[in-house]
């Protein structure tokens, strides 16, 4: 799938358009009754295939996993060397500018992938590293009701999962939500699981619990309580000699 976004600051004062050609999408279909669909986004330089193989091993028979592949594009921090990436990265710092065009294009791709799912199915988005950042940005578009460029955001996700990621455009998010009661309500009630762990085993088990609870239509409060309990148990196991 391709997506074109306006680019600011082009020569002659006219807006150029960046074309984003997304790669292959891999789908892990549910082995049981379909209750939820999650778009899972890989990290920088990866593709959807590797994560689809891993997610297929999780004991979550009611979940459909959609694992797209990011566009191959020049990455500024790599000196322009091309890599699969959901958006461009110019610097690794809190003050680095956000690639709003790339983020909007990827968020729109996620929304498009979710748009064909049945109405009675719970929808979620998640990812690892840059994929986690893109997932969280997509959720921020949902809470604000619009993309960064002001266009309305059409998807209706129920939860988000991020592994070792960050929130792009975090400094301007509060301004987007300020004074918009509906956006504030969505932001306060939206369930998000963020993990920054040293062990993949722990992270995958926490994901399993969170997704399993959400897919069973549990409340946010009960889901959070279960995740906290499980995390405490697993931390104590890790500390044992």
From TrEMBL:
SUPFAM superfamilies assigned:
alpha/beta-Hydrolases
InterPro entries documented for this protein: AB_hydrolase_fold, PLipase/COase/thioEstase
Q: Which residues form the signal peptide?
A: none
Q: Where is the Phospholipase/carboxylesterase/thioesterase domain?
A: 26-200
What Gene3D superfamilies does this protein's entry cite?
alpha/beta hydrolase
In the record, what terms sit under GO molecular function? hydrolase activity
Kindly provide the name given to this protein in its UniProt entry: Phospholipase/carboxylesterase/thioesterase domain-containing protein
Q: Which organism is it from?
A: Glycine max (Soybean)
